[in-house]
Queue: 3 jobs
Job 1
Amino acid sequence: MLPALVLTAGLGARLDPITRLVAKPAVPLGGRTLVERVLRWLAGQGVTDAVLNLHHRPSSVTGVVGDGTHLGVRVRYSWEDPVLGSAGGPRHALPLLDTDTFLIVNGDTLCDVDLAAMTAAHAASGARVTMAVVPNPAPLHYNGLALRDDRIVGVIPRGRAEPSWHFVGVQIASASVFAALPDGEPAESVHGIYQPLMAGPNVEVAGYPVSAGFYDVGTPRDYLATALAVANGATIEPGAVVGQGARITRTVVWPGATIGEGAVLDDCIVTNVEIPPDFRAEGAIILPAALCQDEDTRAQRVGDLALFKIDR
């Protein structure tokens, strides 16, 4: 199986304020972090070598992944400063990947694509890039891709009524697509260097339709929905302590959190904080108050806690 580059360097701005604590791929998700789940999935598909790019809160990723031995895959790291984007990151990692063709997997999505079948389709198409896609499930929320005879021919902005396809975070790419970029300079793929490839006369960027479901951990609401789906209900991560009589529904409780007796939490994300006895919250991300910033007008401070509303 091809080696994989897992994109874990992003700032995770849409997941703020959670990403003030950890990088997006390091959020807890049903007993493992998101990036561990991605790597376990890759190992199960036959991938033996992976490179992770790093920038934002890198220790939160390296601390759980290490060299990948416990996940069944050899892991190395490509360090970025500044963050180099979805094309600049692969360009910088090319010496570590050391191959003509490789997988690129987003570190903030889960999707069970058949990589062997996708690799065969990529080779048969002659394309330089093949992107796994599903029918766009939320055109008002996601940008879409225009697909013609399994060839991606353009980007359809979100909000448009026309049918489109949604990229699920798994692609196969030729190193030549990125090799001409200056190393160490930020660049984007789909909304950057792929655009002229899509517009050309040949099949340069192929779409690979899949029927697999996918989870996108983009926003706090997305994260909560994914965590609950993975855990099939309220999820208390290993290492959390819950006091007697506490009522917890549709809520993620992180390792290291302590929930006081009689507390009532509904539809919340509880990070590594101590919740007082009989405390009540609904629809909130609960972080240490020390992480609040002056411009955090949407935050409510309660003692040592900061509560941010989860956008619907």
Note: The chain has seven helices and 25 strands.
Job 2
Amino acid sequence: MTKLSLKELIGALCLVSVASCAPSLLWVGHNPARTNRFELRHNGNQFWVVQRVSVKGSGIFERKSAAFDEVYLEHAKWNPKRQSLAFIARRAQQYVVVDDLQTGASFDGIGGLYFSPDGGHLAYSAKRGDSWLVLNDGIEVARAESIVDLPFSFSPDSKRLGFAVVRGKCAHTLIDGALGPCVSNVTALALGNTRKADLILVKRQVESVLLHEEHEFALPNLKDFSLDPVFGRWAAVVQEGDSQSLLLSGQGVAQASKVMRLEFSPSGALSYVIKREDGLHAVIDGVEERGFMDVGGIVFSDSGKHHAYVGQEGNVAIVMRDGQEVARWSAADGLVFSADAKRLAYAARNGNSSFVVCQDKPYPFDVVVETSLAFTADGQHCGALVGTFVGKRLSIAIDGKSVLPFDSAEFFGAAAEGAAGLSQLRPWVRAEMQRYVEPHNE
């Protein structure tokens, strides 16, 4: 039977177990909106993928791929713009990319798959003989001895493609067909809509160097790095003696014993965590907030204008929103904003009691899966995957009430596959909630 780790499948697909399915059905997945169902089927030694599309008012339409000796869904990529799936398959000793169920050319091997932001282009690397090729929309755009193990980069407008190749003893960027200078390695690449906005982190011997426009920034003893291609900015932490310095697009903005967790928000604001004598502080767009023993992951609203995280003080978890304390619990996690950022939800615990908290209102449950919290599109309803100790049942609770049954075997079966199903529950719960509330609002 085909091994299905499915680790990289989905920003994309929401997985379900197939333990109770028919013998010919090996795996089932859905797109986040739950309108497309994908099935991996087999007959003897042949495998193929079936796509079943649900169209409101028109029923279900079915399509299927060609048959293969093996299908590798662990590297599959979902294209949300075209509502299609791309994956790698094998016939005999040749490998192909199947995009929207259409089979591409055959190769001796295939690397990662990369969709452009607008979903209109698919790029990947492929091995043929002693050479590695890069293909964009099935057309060869480069050939080299090998491809640097670095994600391909499309520009935000999807018109430009960049990657790195090895030729001789050199690594080079290859952007829009133009070969970059010889360096020891290329470690980060982010394309802007114009060449002046490109950000490239390379190594020359052992030193890291940032290339931007016609400038070079030496980054000796580099400890952390983050790129923001949309706004053309970068941040780096370098070690200087006993302290660390934070550079924002080449300008020093902070210094401390430790600076970590660099991240740009959707609005381009830089966030990070800094260590002071009184503890760890979150810094958002240059504003340093109060200190804690520990600071959890910083979560931003869709606009990037609002943020939240959990700060730890001894045995107390403090929920922070936009720099202000909003609640104290024994533990809290899974923070998420509604689309309009007016509401915040998270999972919390006091002693042995668990809660779904929506805009400061707690709803008690035996078990709350913190990675599943979500809002409906209008932000009016909050839900999560919850469970009961009695009967060991799971369900989707909306606004504090369990309304959608959920098969526990389905959930635990997916997790046992090594499918990283826990991290993919939020879009699935959101879609199920949306499907439930829409008819009730009519």
Note: The chain has two helices and 44 strands.
Job 3
Amino acid sequence: MRNQKIAIIGAGIAGLTIANKLAAKNEVIIFDKSRGIGGRMATRRVENYHFDHGAQFFTAKSDEFKEFCQTAYQQGIIDIWDARFCEIVDNKITRKWQFNNEENPHYVALPQMNNLCKFMAKNLDLRLKEQISKIDFRNQKWALKTIEDKVFSDFDYVILAIPSHQALNLLPENFKYLQIIKDVQMLPCFSLMLGFKEDLDLDFDAALVKESVISWISVNSSKKSRPENFSMLINSSNDWAKENLEDDLELIQQKLLKQLQKIIDFDQNKIDYVNIHRWRYANAKLREAEKSLFDQNLNLALCGDYFISGRVENAFLSALDLHKKILK
């Protein structure tokens, strides 16, 4: 495949991976509605704190992603998070262990999560702050229209590397695999960000929480290249977020703080910064079906972590799977 004009919508891991695979021999343009790249590879920087309020870390199980991570590691783009890990059940620590970073490294990007995406985006044609509202297929060519009525045209292929619910707003009714995308269930999450005036005396850096409205607690400042000011990231459970998705964020924030105090004894007066983010499409349950979709009649394709499950590596693998399908 060469000399094709390709539009990719979404500048997260999946979109950037497929872009790099295709850009050498084709004209590839990536569109993203945000002002920066990365999607859920996100870090909130404010005052003296950093919060990785999207992906907390990532691991590599496949040979392809291991090789990719090794390259990024050698170039200083990512490093290993040597976290003290624990499991909390019914507000009590039940198990403790250290991340096994010899056999299964837990990586973070430096100094913030989307730096891995910036590394991947080198030499790619990125069009940021361009929210595509419609795609139109006529005479074997695609045209893209933004919410501001800007039009980008004459594309041979369109690839949607965005959450399934967002993709549905763009897919035409004659897309061959439309029902598959309609059946995908992505799960929401609330991410609570806390910066403290002084360190909390905790005996863990990351915790998986069960039987609670909270599912995850991490000391973000324990990661390398982050500001030393004590910061924490708390994720709600997906099920609780789904039940409370449209509630006022201030109310959600107070509920999560109240629940956190049942797990960790701290004085709210020592909180220096607090914020919350609502992720409508944060995660996806494990699927054992197609890892990507490609409609050859329309030259329209989709990839993303939701095809497999909500992990960074799965976004990468979905894009590799799509690349193979397109080359066929």
Note: The longest helix spans residues 312-327.
